[in-house]
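Annotated sample (chain length 376).
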Amino acid sequence: MSHSFCLVVNPAACGGRCGRRLPETLGALADCGARDVRVCPTTSLGHAVELAEEATARQETVVAVGGDGLVGTLAGAVSRAGGVLGIIPAGRGNDFAHMLGIPARPAAAAEALLSGEPRAVDLIGVQCGDGQELAVAGSVYLGVPSEGGEIANRSWWARGPVGYQLAGVRALLGWRPATFTVDPGPADPEVVDPEPADPQAGGPAATGWAAVSFPGFCVVVANSVYLAAGRQVAPDADIGDGLLDVIMVRQGTKLSFAEAMLRAGRGRHVPMDEVTTQRAARVTVTADRAMPAAADGETLACACPLGAGSPLLIRALPGALRVIAPADGQAPGARRHSPERTWWPWPPPRKDSTNSGLADSSAGVPSIRTSPPPST
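Output written by the structure step:
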Protein backbone atom coordinates (compact mmCIF):
# COMPACT_ATOMS: atom_id res chain seq x y z
CA MET A 1 0.00 0.00 0.00
CA SER A 2 1.18 3.52 -0.80
CA HIS A 3 2.36 5.63 2.14
CA SER A 4 1.81 8.81 0.13
CA PHE A 5 -1.53 10.44 0.81
CA CYS A 6 -3.58 12.93 -1.18
CA LEU A 7 -6.23 14.52 1.06
CA VAL A 8 -9.16 15.71 -1.06
CA VAL A 9 -11.30 18.27 0.78
CA ASN A 10 -13.73 21.07 0.09
CA PRO A 11 -12.95 23.42 3.01
CA ALA A 12 -16.25 25.28 2.53
CA ALA A 13 -18.43 22.15 2.74
CA CYS A 14 -20.61 21.44 5.77
CA GLY A 15 -20.53 25.08 6.79
CA GLY A 16 -16.73 25.07 6.85
CA ARG A 17 -16.51 22.03 9.10
CA CYS A 18 -14.31 20.15 6.64
CA GLY A 19 -11.79 22.99 6.55
CA ARG A 20 -11.78 23.35 10.32
CA ARG A 21 -10.87 19.67 10.74
CA LEU A 22 -7.83 19.89 8.50
CA PRO A 23 -5.28 21.18 11.05
CA GLU A 24 -6.15 18.45 13.58
CA THR A 25 -6.07 15.81 10.86
CA LEU A 26 -2.70 16.95 9.50
CA GLY A 27 -1.24 17.19 12.99
CA ALA A 28 -2.41 13.68 13.81
CA LEU A 29 -0.94 12.30 10.60
CA ALA A 30 2.39 13.97 11.36
CA ASP A 31 2.35 12.64 14.93
CA CYS A 32 1.76 9.13 13.57
CA GLY A 33 4.75 9.39 11.25
CA ALA A 34 3.14 10.35 7.93
CA ARG A 35 5.49 12.57 5.96
CA ASP A 36 4.31 12.46 2.35
CA VAL A 37 0.94 14.21 2.59
CA ARG A 38 -0.63 16.53 0.03
CA VAL A 39 -3.80 18.53 0.56
CA CYS A 40 -5.86 19.08 -2.58
CA PRO A 41 -8.71 21.59 -2.11
CA THR A 42 -11.65 20.91 -4.42
CA THR A 43 -14.28 23.20 -5.85
CA SER A 44 -16.88 20.57 -6.76
CA LEU A 45 -17.53 16.85 -6.83
CA GLY A 46 -16.52 16.77 -10.50
CA HIS A 47 -13.23 18.44 -9.63
CA ALA A 48 -12.76 15.91 -6.81
CA VAL A 49 -12.98 13.09 -9.36
CA GLU A 50 -10.19 14.68 -11.41
CA LEU A 51 -8.01 15.05 -8.32
CA ALA A 52 -8.60 11.41 -7.37
CA GLU A 53 -7.66 10.16 -10.82
CA GLU A 54 -4.47 12.23 -10.85
CA ALA A 55 -3.49 11.10 -7.34
CA THR A 56 -4.10 7.44 -8.14
CA ALA A 57 -1.90 7.77 -11.20
CA ARG A 58 0.84 9.04 -8.87
CA GLN A 59 0.42 5.91 -6.72
CA GLU A 60 -0.98 7.97 -3.85
CA THR A 61 -3.71 6.85 -1.47
CA VAL A 62 -6.69 9.13 -2.01
CA VAL A 63 -8.22 10.30 1.28
CA ALA A 64 -11.72 11.77 1.40
CA VAL A 65 -11.94 14.45 4.10
CA GLY A 66 -15.67 15.04 4.16
CA GLY A 67 -19.06 13.39 4.32
CA ASP A 68 -20.85 10.68 2.38
CA GLY A 69 -21.31 12.76 -0.76
CA LEU A 70 -17.57 13.21 -1.20
CA VAL A 71 -16.84 9.65 -0.05
CA GLY A 72 -19.28 8.17 -2.56
CA THR A 73 -17.92 10.28 -5.41
CA LEU A 74 -14.29 9.44 -4.66
CA ALA A 75 -15.13 5.77 -4.10
CA GLY A 76 -16.35 5.51 -7.68
CA ALA A 77 -13.36 7.40 -9.08
CA VAL A 78 -10.79 5.42 -7.08
CA SER A 79 -12.48 2.12 -7.96
CA ARG A 80 -12.33 2.90 -11.68
CA ALA A 81 -8.68 3.94 -11.41
CA GLY A 82 -7.69 0.85 -9.41
CA GLY A 83 -6.50 2.80 -6.36
CA VAL A 84 -7.02 2.76 -2.61
CA LEU A 85 -9.37 5.06 -0.67
CA GLY A 86 -8.97 6.37 2.86
CA ILE A 87 -11.60 8.30 4.82
CA ILE A 88 -11.40 11.07 7.42
CA PRO A 89 -15.05 11.64 8.46
CA ALA A 90 -15.89 15.35 8.39
CA GLY A 91 -19.52 15.49 7.23
CA ARG A 92 -22.84 15.51 9.03
CA GLY A 93 -23.71 11.88 8.36
CA ASN A 94 -20.50 9.88 7.81
CA ASP A 95 -22.58 6.73 7.35
CA PHE A 96 -20.15 4.81 5.12
CA ALA A 97 -17.23 5.54 7.47
CA HIS A 98 -19.40 4.40 10.37
CA MET A 99 -20.13 1.15 8.53
CA LEU A 100 -16.38 0.51 8.23
CA GLY A 101 -15.69 1.26 11.90
CA ILE A 102 -13.66 4.39 11.15
CA PRO A 103 -13.58 6.68 14.21
CA ALA A 104 -15.40 9.99 14.05
CA ARG A 105 -12.64 12.07 15.66
CA PRO A 106 -10.05 13.30 13.14
CA ALA A 107 -7.06 12.26 15.26
CA ALA A 108 -8.38 8.73 15.76
CA ALA A 109 -9.37 8.49 12.09
CA ALA A 110 -5.86 9.58 11.06
CA GLU A 111 -4.33 6.90 13.27
CA ALA A 112 -6.67 4.30 11.75
CA LEU A 113 -5.66 5.48 8.28
CA LEU A 114 -2.01 4.69 9.00
CA SER A 115 -2.53 1.49 10.97
CA GLY A 116 -5.43 0.06 8.96
CA GLU A 117 -5.38 -2.30 6.02
CA PRO A 118 -7.09 -2.08 2.61
CA ARG A 119 -10.24 -4.18 2.44
CA ALA A 120 -12.32 -5.02 -0.60
CA VAL A 121 -15.91 -3.79 -0.19
CA ASP A 122 -18.90 -3.55 -2.50
CA LEU A 123 -20.16 -0.44 -4.24
CA ILE A 124 -23.45 0.27 -6.02
CA GLY A 125 -23.73 0.86 -9.76
CA VAL A 126 -26.64 3.13 -10.72
CA GLN A 127 -27.75 3.95 -14.25
CA CYS A 128 -30.63 6.03 -15.60
CA GLY A 129 -31.99 4.34 -18.72
CA ASP A 130 -29.28 4.05 -21.35
CA GLY A 131 -27.04 6.60 -19.62
CA GLN A 132 -23.62 6.06 -18.11
CA GLU A 133 -23.39 3.95 -14.98
CA LEU A 134 -22.18 5.73 -11.86
CA ALA A 135 -20.66 4.09 -8.80
CA VAL A 136 -21.86 5.19 -5.35
CA ALA A 137 -21.14 3.87 -1.89
CA GLY A 138 -23.94 3.58 0.63
CA SER A 139 -27.47 3.72 -0.82
CA VAL A 140 -29.75 4.90 -3.62
CA TYR A 141 -33.25 6.13 -2.77
CA LEU A 142 -36.28 7.89 -4.14
CA GLY A 143 -39.51 9.11 -2.63
CA VAL A 144 -39.98 11.24 0.44
CA PRO A 145 -36.27 11.34 1.38
CA SER A 146 -35.13 12.36 -2.11
CA GLU A 147 -37.86 14.99 -2.45
CA GLY A 148 -36.94 16.34 0.96
CA GLY A 149 -33.35 16.65 -0.19
CA GLU A 150 -34.47 18.67 -3.21
CA ILE A 151 -36.48 21.00 -0.99
CA ALA A 152 -33.42 21.53 1.19
CA ASN A 153 -31.22 22.19 -1.85
CA ARG A 154 -33.59 24.87 -3.16
CA SER A 155 -34.27 26.57 0.17
CA TRP A 156 -32.18 29.33 1.69
CA TRP A 157 -33.50 28.46 5.16
CA ALA A 158 -32.51 24.77 4.98
CA ARG A 159 -29.06 25.09 6.51
CA GLY A 160 -27.69 22.72 9.11
CA PRO A 161 -29.25 19.51 10.47
CA VAL A 162 -32.46 21.14 11.73
CA GLY A 163 -33.06 22.80 8.36
CA TYR A 164 -32.70 19.50 6.53
CA GLN A 165 -35.05 17.77 8.94
CA LEU A 166 -37.64 20.51 8.46
CA ALA A 167 -37.30 20.01 4.72
CA GLY A 168 -38.06 16.33 5.28
CA VAL A 169 -41.21 17.20 7.24
CA ARG A 170 -42.28 19.53 4.45
CA ALA A 171 -41.73 16.79 1.87
CA LEU A 172 -43.85 14.36 3.87
CA LEU A 173 -46.68 16.86 4.41
CA GLY A 174 -46.74 17.70 0.69
CA TRP A 175 -46.27 14.12 -0.52
CA ARG A 176 -48.37 13.21 -3.55
CA PRO A 177 -49.25 9.53 -3.95
CA ALA A 178 -46.89 7.54 -6.15
CA THR A 179 -46.74 3.93 -7.30
CA PHE A 180 -43.31 2.31 -7.37
CA THR A 181 -42.30 -0.79 -9.30
CA VAL A 182 -39.26 -2.73 -8.10
CA ASP A 183 -38.09 -5.53 -10.39
CA PRO A 184 -35.13 -7.80 -9.52
CA GLY A 185 -35.16 -9.28 -13.03
CA PRO A 186 -34.86 -12.99 -13.77
CA ALA A 187 -33.48 -15.14 -11.00
CA ASP A 188 -29.72 -15.66 -11.23
CA PRO A 189 -28.83 -19.24 -10.20
CA GLU A 190 -25.28 -18.12 -9.34
CA VAL A 191 -26.54 -15.63 -6.76
CA VAL A 192 -27.34 -17.45 -3.56
CA ASP A 193 -28.12 -15.87 -0.25
CA PRO A 194 -25.62 -17.66 2.05
CA GLU A 195 -27.81 -17.21 5.09
CA PRO A 196 -31.46 -16.84 4.04
CA ALA A 197 -33.22 -14.73 6.61
CA ASP A 198 -35.97 -16.14 8.74
CA PRO A 199 -39.19 -14.43 7.62
CA GLN A 200 -40.41 -14.57 11.21
CA ALA A 201 -37.43 -12.46 12.26
CA GLY A 202 -38.32 -9.66 9.88
CA GLY A 203 -35.03 -9.65 7.96
CA PRO A 204 -34.63 -9.48 4.18
CA ALA A 205 -35.91 -12.40 2.20
CA ALA A 206 -33.62 -14.54 0.08
CA THR A 207 -33.01 -13.64 -3.55
CA GLY A 208 -35.32 -14.91 -6.30
CA TRP A 209 -38.43 -12.81 -5.57
CA ALA A 210 -40.81 -11.46 -8.19
CA ALA A 211 -41.32 -7.87 -9.28
CA VAL A 212 -43.70 -5.82 -7.14
CA SER A 213 -45.73 -2.65 -7.75
CA PHE A 214 -47.18 -0.75 -4.85
CA PRO A 215 -48.35 2.72 -3.82
CA GLY A 216 -45.78 3.89 -1.33
CA PHE A 217 -43.63 6.54 0.30
CA CYS A 218 -40.13 5.46 -0.73
CA VAL A 219 -37.72 2.83 -1.98
CA VAL A 220 -34.20 2.53 -0.57
CA VAL A 221 -31.64 0.25 -2.21
CA ALA A 222 -28.85 -0.12 0.32
CA ASN A 223 -25.30 -1.37 0.44
CA SER A 224 -24.80 -0.02 3.97
CA VAL A 225 -26.85 -0.35 7.13
CA TYR A 226 -26.81 3.37 7.78
CA LEU A 227 -28.52 6.32 6.15
CA ALA A 228 -29.31 9.87 7.32
CA ALA A 229 -26.67 10.23 10.04
CA GLY A 230 -26.77 6.80 11.59
CA ARG A 231 -30.33 5.62 10.97
CA GLN A 232 -30.34 1.83 10.57
CA VAL A 233 -32.60 1.90 7.54
CA ALA A 234 -31.23 -1.42 6.21
CA PRO A 235 -30.29 -3.19 9.45
CA ASP A 236 -29.18 -6.42 7.75
CA ALA A 237 -27.12 -4.86 4.94
CA ASP A 238 -23.55 -6.07 4.45
CA ILE A 239 -21.01 -4.23 2.28
CA GLY A 240 -19.16 -7.46 1.58
CA ASP A 241 -21.87 -9.91 0.47
CA GLY A 242 -22.32 -8.85 -3.16
CA LEU A 243 -26.03 -8.16 -2.56
CA LEU A 244 -28.23 -5.12 -2.03
CA ASP A 245 -30.95 -4.75 0.60
CA VAL A 246 -34.16 -3.26 -0.78
CA ILE A 247 -36.38 -1.41 1.69
CA MET A 248 -39.90 -0.51 0.49
CA VAL A 249 -42.27 1.59 2.56
CA ARG A 250 -45.84 1.16 1.35
CA GLN A 251 -48.53 3.81 1.40
CA GLY A 252 -50.26 4.33 4.74
CA THR A 253 -50.95 7.35 6.85
CA LYS A 254 -48.28 10.01 6.94
CA LEU A 255 -48.10 9.40 10.67
CA SER A 256 -47.25 5.76 10.00
CA PHE A 257 -44.35 6.83 7.77
CA ALA A 258 -43.11 9.15 10.49
CA GLU A 259 -43.28 6.27 12.96
CA ALA A 260 -41.37 3.99 10.58
CA MET A 261 -38.59 6.50 10.15
CA LEU A 262 -38.32 7.16 13.87
CA ARG A 263 -38.12 3.41 14.52
CA ALA A 264 -35.38 3.21 11.91
CA GLY A 265 -33.09 4.94 14.39
CA ARG A 266 -32.46 1.49 15.86
CA GLY A 267 -33.57 -0.64 12.94
CA ARG A 268 -36.93 -1.45 14.54
CA HIS A 269 -39.09 -0.41 11.58
CA VAL A 270 -38.68 -3.67 9.63
CA PRO A 271 -41.53 -5.62 11.36
CA MET A 272 -44.09 -2.89 10.55
CA ASP A 273 -46.83 -3.85 8.10
CA GLU A 274 -45.95 -0.93 5.81
CA VAL A 275 -42.30 -2.00 5.46
CA THR A 276 -41.12 -4.75 3.10
CA THR A 277 -37.51 -5.87 2.74
CA GLN A 278 -35.91 -7.96 0.03
CA ARG A 279 -32.38 -8.78 -1.12
CA ALA A 280 -31.06 -8.90 -4.69
CA ALA A 281 -27.91 -8.47 -6.75
CA ARG A 282 -29.68 -5.96 -8.99
CA VAL A 283 -33.03 -4.18 -9.24
CA THR A 284 -34.80 -1.81 -11.61
CA VAL A 285 -36.93 0.87 -9.95
CA THR A 286 -39.55 3.03 -11.64
CA ALA A 287 -42.20 5.44 -10.38
CA ASP A 288 -45.46 6.49 -12.04
CA ARG A 289 -44.66 10.18 -11.62
CA ALA A 290 -41.53 12.25 -11.93
CA MET A 291 -39.41 12.61 -8.80
CA PRO A 292 -35.72 13.04 -7.97
CA ALA A 293 -33.56 10.06 -7.12
CA ALA A 294 -30.55 10.47 -4.85
CA ALA A 295 -27.51 8.59 -3.57
CA ASP A 296 -25.21 9.24 -0.62
CA GLY A 297 -26.88 12.55 0.21
CA GLU A 298 -26.68 13.98 -3.33
CA THR A 299 -29.38 14.14 -6.01
CA LEU A 300 -28.32 12.09 -9.02
CA ALA A 301 -27.63 14.41 -11.94
CA CYS A 302 -29.22 11.92 -14.35
CA ALA A 303 -32.39 11.69 -12.22
CA CYS A 304 -33.17 15.29 -11.38
CA PRO A 305 -35.92 14.36 -11.76
CA LEU A 306 -36.31 10.75 -12.84
CA GLY A 307 -39.13 10.83 -15.40
CA ALA A 308 -42.37 8.94 -14.88
CA GLY A 309 -41.82 5.34 -15.96
CA SER A 310 -38.08 5.89 -16.56
CA PRO A 311 -36.02 2.96 -15.28
CA LEU A 312 -33.36 3.40 -12.62
CA LEU A 313 -31.03 0.40 -12.88
CA ILE A 314 -29.21 -0.42 -9.66
CA ARG A 315 -26.76 -3.28 -9.14
CA ALA A 316 -24.19 -4.44 -6.64
CA LEU A 317 -20.54 -4.10 -7.63
CA PRO A 318 -18.91 -6.85 -5.53
CA GLY A 319 -15.47 -6.05 -4.14
CA ALA A 320 -15.22 -2.98 -6.39
CA LEU A 321 -13.36 -0.75 -3.91
CA ARG A 322 -10.29 -1.15 -1.75
CA VAL A 323 -10.73 1.07 1.28
CA ILE A 324 -8.57 1.42 4.38
CA ALA A 325 -10.40 0.28 7.50
CA PRO A 326 -9.19 -0.19 11.09
CA ALA A 327 -7.13 -3.35 11.40
CA ASP A 328 -8.67 -4.25 14.76
CA GLY A 329 -12.15 -3.02 13.94
CA GLN A 330 -15.23 -5.03 13.09
CA ALA A 331 -15.41 -6.57 9.65
CA PRO A 332 -17.29 -4.71 6.91
CA GLY A 333 -21.00 -5.19 7.37
CA ALA A 334 -20.89 -5.68 11.15
CA ARG A 335 -23.66 -3.72 12.78
CA ARG A 336 -23.00 -0.96 15.27
CA HIS A 337 -25.08 1.54 17.14
CA SER A 338 -24.64 5.07 15.89
CA PRO A 339 -23.72 7.73 18.47
CA GLU A 340 -25.37 10.39 16.32
CA ARG A 341 -29.10 10.96 16.71
CA THR A 342 -31.49 13.37 15.05
CA TRP A 343 -35.07 14.01 16.01
CA TRP A 344 -36.25 13.36 12.47
CA PRO A 345 -34.37 11.18 10.02
CA TRP A 346 -35.37 12.56 6.62
CA PRO A 347 -34.00 13.76 4.34
CA PRO A 348 -30.39 12.61 4.50
CA PRO A 349 -28.37 15.79 4.93
CA ARG A 350 -26.72 17.06 1.78
CA LYS A 351 -23.17 15.97 2.47
CA ASP A 352 -20.74 17.85 0.22
CA SER A 353 -22.68 20.19 -1.98
CA THR A 354 -21.29 21.00 -5.39
CA ASN A 355 -22.58 24.52 -4.78
CA SER A 356 -20.30 25.22 -1.83
CA GLY A 357 -17.07 25.85 -3.65
CA LEU A 358 -13.84 27.51 -2.63
CA ALA A 359 -14.80 30.68 -4.45
CA ASP A 360 -17.48 31.33 -1.83
CA SER A 361 -15.40 31.09 1.33
CA SER A 362 -11.78 30.26 0.62
CA ALA A 363 -10.71 33.33 2.55
CA GLY A 364 -11.72 31.57 5.74
CA VAL A 365 -9.73 28.40 5.13
CA PRO A 366 -7.16 27.81 7.88
CA SER A 367 -3.52 27.53 6.96
CA ILE A 368 -2.49 23.97 6.18
CA ARG A 369 0.77 22.12 5.85
CA THR A 370 1.25 20.32 2.59
CA SER A 371 3.95 18.28 0.96
CA PRO A 372 4.94 19.11 -2.61
CA PRO A 373 3.56 16.75 -5.26
CA PRO A 374 5.90 14.08 -6.55
CA SER A 375 7.65 14.95 -9.77
CA THR A 376 6.04 13.52 -12.89
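Annotation: The two ends are 20 Å apart (CA to CA).
Annotation: The chain has a mean pLDDT of 82.
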